[in-house]
């Protein structure tokens, strides 16, 4: 080759670097530096023979036998109530499983279903659900559809509880909600001082000098007007507010107090303004009618459910007096799956057990429903697949439900089990977002419908 | 250790992973190609044959049986152009050219727009047809159709002489570096280079190396990274994000689409350069533009100049009065938008750019009357303001370009206007630290003067072979560390 013409250079460069990289691929080429582990380089990945050892490393064996984790005394079913685990595999059953234990007054959905029946037969006026969850239910996702279906069958109109301010107000389509920026928002993330209790939603709001919040109905079935409105507030010592320009002095001293009014049909909106006086905490506003079913959406982004332990006994008990619940739903999962291949969830099960112990204790006559994590995919070797942590977490959540005599609904199984999130994301129409974790509106509507159906299957079995 | 079946499988077309410049397969392909090409370097005929065979195989790897389309259109256009050129009867020539245009656009229309128009007709109750199932847009068709058209039209206008050798034409059309995503190359620029001997100097080596490395860097390290780790979440569900996130998402997308497309173009240019072909640049730091007119001179240059020569000027250009000129500009951009895909979003996007170009024309005309742009500090302020304004207008248009529906576009704009929530910045920064640094770095790189590019090219030109090998191998190792395991198809592959 002449010194001038370098036409062979591209070949030298490409072939040379290829040889280097292939040679590197032949040897172990990963290294770790503190928290960083380099990815392996393998120029031959596409043509290598599959090594069987590799694939078994991902699939973690998850024993379905749960007896080891639970003390024998807890698992003895009440006389006459069969253990549903004898008939169904909790890991794949798509309906609701009702568990019972000795020391709790109500088991499974029993109380909730009979409350629904009493409502249907005119023996009671309201049935309320406290639906706790994380970002999966933000903006009234899932709860909106569940509420709508229940209200069609059992009556009621209104969105239930709405906090004073919300990061997802703009996203929520079941109410128009605007507010001033000067509310002080205490929450699980920034706990209030000892004198101020933390509200049931995980938030407590303290007004600034000119704080206000405004709610307007939306053009949707059952949500197009306000009827019975109640403001939930904390211990007051002489605070004043105006509601649609009408002045109120708030005097309740309990951890939770209610100021209720019938909405004047001439004023469709609710304008609440802080009108001075001694500073005090507020929780939110409830929109209901004088009877029917209500689903309160208690969403809190980024939490796992353990945070509910920060709710005081006083708040929970007082709430049950002012605004009683017949069913508490605990719907968590996405935030425990930050390490997709982690399959030991005892670190979650232990503190969550304490949380459920105390909630169960504070609300002895309320039914509990544990909803498992949804499917969540992660990328492995170029493909999206169900994180091994998902079935492991489902198992832990099942133990929690069984130990506490709660009802249990396996959302992962109801979605379709392994690999379902991939189908939900890639389906047409898409039902979930590209993070392979969150549902979009259509997906949430589908989950709401699945949950409603599961509940109604139980209801029909008991009361029809 | 090597599975022969798998090896065979990777050599065949797979719909799931078409060949891309940033795939490992291409690396092997390129090495084998260069070896064969080098062996054939002394004879033009063999060179063309080798390059064409590898190009057709490349195309087969990209879109399977549709490789037939390019063969077919090469045969048809090669012969039509010769007949046009050799005939002296104006009517016959015109007829043949019209036939060629109808054939080429018809092909494009069938694959790209058929279902769109069936749908529009159904919605308006003009007709009722079922959508045609299983139409897949053959990769590259939007690009090579335009190349065929410009060739036939140039021959018709007797601006160029048609090629004598069919292989030369097939080679021009199938030339693999630009086959899938452009740039749209003109036959007049390309064909003369075929007969030149294959010789490279150190400038060619340095420039090619720089283009390949910077192209990979833009595509894999900037574009794919920002898109996968941030931008896609925003556009997936804009109403779930704060205005600040949405705005940053739009800035991110501006980088994503630029780095994706220009990165791929750079790689094409670099590969072409290394094999002895010079293709004019397709992008010239477009976000440095101080006006929308300038932007379109720097963005996807091969398309905008094609539209100028074969659409805007035939429409009358600026020869039929001011009003007609504005309308022509607008219409050209509207059609340019439609070229990107059969959807109202693209049409609206094109319409926005067309309107802006027409308005900018008014400004330019007024400025000319006043005797040119102001100089001194006033000029500098105007220029900076212009860059800021142009960038934001282009970003605004990207919202419609990217969002899957109008509803999503408005939802995103609504978030930015009504729900900005600047107080979340720290939380956001902590969540996307790496992404934001990459974005900042990318913007800084984009605004570096041309000098720095030249410097990098000259430096690479001076490397000894082993130095180049070390740099390339090290760079690819870094790419593997950063790149997402998902194959990210280039955005312009869909157009």
TrEMBL record, chain A:
Tell me where in this chain the SGNH hydrolase-type esterase domain is found.
281-445
What superkingdom heads the lineage? Bacteria
Q: Which GO terms describe its molecular function?
A: hydrolase activity, acting on ester bonds
Listed name of the protein: SGNH hydrolase-type esterase domain-containing protein
Q: Which organism is it from?
A: Chitinophaga oryziterrae
Automatic annotation (TrEMBL), chain B:
Which GO biological process entries does UniProt record here? alginic acid biosynthetic process
What is the annotated localization of this protein? Cell membrane
Carries keyword ATP-binding?
no
Transmembrane segments in this chain: where?
Answer: 20-41, 48-76, 96-114, 126-146, 166-188, 380-401, 429-448, 460-480
Name a GO molecular-function annotation.
acyltransferase activity
Going by the UniProt record, its keywords in alphabetical order are: Acyltransferase, Cell membrane, Membrane, Transferase, Transmembrane, Transmembrane helix
Ranges in a coiled coil: none
Keyword Transferase on this protein?
yes
Membrane topology note: Multi-pass membrane protein
**GO CC annotations, alphabetized:** plasma membrane
Recorded hits in Pfam families, A to Z, give: MBOAT (PF03062)
Regarding protein family, the annotation reads: Belongs to the membrane-bound acyltransferase family.
The protein, known as: MBOAT family protein
């Amino acid at each position: 080759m002449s010194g001038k013409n370098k036409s062979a250079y591209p070949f030298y460069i490409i072939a040379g670097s290829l040889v280097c990289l292939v040679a590197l691929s032949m040897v172990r080429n990963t290294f770790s530096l503190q928290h960083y582990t380099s990815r392996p380089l393998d120029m031959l990945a596409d043509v290598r023979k599959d090594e069987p050892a590799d694939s078994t490393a991902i699939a973690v064996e998850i024993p379905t036998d749960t007896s080891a984790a639970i003390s024998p005394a807890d698992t003895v079913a009440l006389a006459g109530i069969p253990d549903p685990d004898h008939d169904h595999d909790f890991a794949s059953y798509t309906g609701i499983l009702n568990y019972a234990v000795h020391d709790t007054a109500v088991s499974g959905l029993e109380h909730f279903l009979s409350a629904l029946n009493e409502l249907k037969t005119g023996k009671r006026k309201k049935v309320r659900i406290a639906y706790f969850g994380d970002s999966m239910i933000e903006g009234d996702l899932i709860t909106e559809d569940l509420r709508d279906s229940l209200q069609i069958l059992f009556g009621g109109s209104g969105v239930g509880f709405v906090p004073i301010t919300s990061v997802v107000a703009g996203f929520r389509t079941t109410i128009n909600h605007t507010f001033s920026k000067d509310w002080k928002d205490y929450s699980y993330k920034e706990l209030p001082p000892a004198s101020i209790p933390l509200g049931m939603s995980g938030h407590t709001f303290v007004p600034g000098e000119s704080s206000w919040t405004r709610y307007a109905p939306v053009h949707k079935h059952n949500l197009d007007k306000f009827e019975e409105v109640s403001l939930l507030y904390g211990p007051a010592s002489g605070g004043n507010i105006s509601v649609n320009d009408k002045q109120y002095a708030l005097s309740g001293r309990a951890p939770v107090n209610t100021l209720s009014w019938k909405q004047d049909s001439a004023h469709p909106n609710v304008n609440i303004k802080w009108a001075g006086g001694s500073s005090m905490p507020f929780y939110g506003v409830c929109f209901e009618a004088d009877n029917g079913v209500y689903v309160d959406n208690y969403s809190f982004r980024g939490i796992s459910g353990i945070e509910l332990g920060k709710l005081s006994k006083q708040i929970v008990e007082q709430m049950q007096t002012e605004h009683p619940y017949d069913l508490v739903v605990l719907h968590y999962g996405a935030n425990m799956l930050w390490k997709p291949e982690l399959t030991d969830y005892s670190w979650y099960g232990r503190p969550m057990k304490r949380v459920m112990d105390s909630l169960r204790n504070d609300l002895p006559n309320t039914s509990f429903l544990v909803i498992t994590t949804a499917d969540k995919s992660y990328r492995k070797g170029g493909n999206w697949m169900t994180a091994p942590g998902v079935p492991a977490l489902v198992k832990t959540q099942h133990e929690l439900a069984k130990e506490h005599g709660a009802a249990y609904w396996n959302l992962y199984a109801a979605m379709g089990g392994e690999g379902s999130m991939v189908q939900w994301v890639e389906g047409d129409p898409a039902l979930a977002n590209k993070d392979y974790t969150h549902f979009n509106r259509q997906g949430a509507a589908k989950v709401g419908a699945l949950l409603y159906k599961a509940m109604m299957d139980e209801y029909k079995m008991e009361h029809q | 250790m090597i599975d022969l079946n798998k090896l065979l499988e990777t050599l065949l077309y797979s719909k799931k992973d078409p060949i891309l410049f940033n795939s490992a397969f291409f690396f092997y392909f390129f090495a084998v190609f260069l070896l064969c090409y080098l062996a054939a370097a002394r004879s033009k005929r063999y060179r063309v044959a080798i390059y064409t065979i590898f190009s057709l195989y490349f195309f087969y790897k990209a879109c399977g049986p549709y490789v037939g389309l390019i063969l077919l259109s090469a045969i048809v256009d090669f012969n039509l152009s010769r007949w046009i050129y050799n005939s002296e009867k104006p009517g016959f020539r015109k007829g043949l050219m019209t036939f060629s245009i109808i054939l080429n656009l018809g092909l494009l229309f069938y694959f790209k727009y058929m279902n769109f128009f069936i749908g529009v007709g159904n919605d308006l109750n003009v007709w009722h047809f079922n959508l045609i199932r299983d139409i897949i847009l053959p990769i590259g068709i939007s690009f090579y159709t335009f190349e065929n058209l410009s060739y036939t039209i140039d021959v018709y206008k007797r601006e160029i002489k048609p090629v004598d050798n069919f292989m030369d034409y097939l080679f021009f059309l199938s030339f693999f570096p630009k086959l899938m995503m452009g740039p749209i190359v003109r036959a007049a620029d390309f064909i003369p280079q075929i007969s030149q001997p294959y010789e490279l100097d150190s400038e060619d080596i340095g420039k090619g190396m720089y283009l390949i490395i910077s192209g990979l860097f833009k595509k894999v390290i900037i574009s794919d990274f920002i898109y996968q780790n941030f931008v896609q979440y925003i556009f997936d569900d804009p109403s779930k994000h704060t205005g600040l996130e949405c705005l940053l998402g739009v800035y991110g997308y501006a980088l994503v689409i630029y780095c994706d497309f220009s990165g791929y173009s750079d790689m094409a240019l670099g590969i072409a350069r290394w094999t002895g072909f010079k293709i004019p640049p397709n992008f010239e730091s477009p976000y440095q533009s101080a006006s929308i007119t300038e932007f379109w001179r720097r963005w996807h240059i091969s398309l905008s100049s094609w539209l100028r020569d074969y659409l805007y000027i035939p429409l009358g250009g600026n020869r039929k009065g001011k009003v007609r000129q504005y309308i022509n500009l607008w219409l050209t951009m509207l059609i340019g938008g439609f070229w990107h895909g059969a959807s109202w979003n693209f049409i609206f996007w094109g319409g926005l750019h067309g309107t802006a170009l027409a308005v900018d024309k008014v400004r330019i005309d007024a400025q000319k009357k006043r005797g040119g742009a102001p100089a001194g500090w006033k000029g500098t302020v105007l220029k900076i303001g212009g860059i800021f304004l142009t960038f934001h207008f282009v970003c605004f248009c990207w919202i419609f370009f990217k969002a899957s529906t109008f509803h999503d576009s408005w939802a995103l704009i609504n978030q930015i206007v009504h729900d900005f929530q600047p107080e979340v910045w720290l939380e956001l920064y902590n969540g996307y630290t790496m992404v934001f640094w990459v974005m900042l770095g990318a913007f800084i790189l984009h605004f570096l003067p041309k000098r720095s590019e030249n410097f990098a090219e000259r430096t690479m030109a001076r490397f000894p072979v082993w130095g180049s090998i070390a740099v390339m191998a090290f760079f690819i190792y870094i790419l593997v560390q950063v790149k997402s395991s998902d194959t990210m198809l280039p955005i312009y592959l869909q157009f």
